[in-house]
Every structure is written in C-alpha cells, then in structure tokens.
Amino acid sequence: MLPKSPWWVWYLYADEPDEGLKREELDKVLANYLFTEKTPMRDDVIGIMEKRPSLRERSTVAERVIAKIKAFVETFIDGVD
Which of 9, 49, 50, 66 has its CA 20 to 30 A from that of 57? Predict the structure, then answer.
C-alpha cells in the first residue's frame, strides 16, 4: 500500500518520532508553508501533535519543529535546482 502523503511528509514524519506529529496534519502545514511561504504559527504546530506539550514546553517544542520544517524546505525543496 502506497502512502497517501507526499514523500517529503514521510521523510519529515520519520525524522520526528519524539514529537508525535500527526502525518496528515503535517502534510497540510507543510503544503501551506510551501504555498504561502509564511512560517507556520506555533499554534498550528502544537495542533498537529498527538500529545500536546505542557504550557512551559510549548514554545520550545514548537520552535524546534518549525526550525526543522524550515531547514527541510531549504535543503530538499529550495536547494534542488
């Protein structure tokens, strides 16, 4: 059975087992980021997590995931010529 999500969602999803990201929601956030070129909001990133972090950890966790999303797009999408 082939995955429904694009390859890049599977790649990033596999890279983030500790964050517990929902694959389908990650697909939407990445597609929106690629289309609008606007950085995902922290609330959007927190919303795609299976288990929400505590209030104390939310900022750190969200910023870490956003940084990984940006690095992924820079490396694999923008870096391919």
Answer: 9
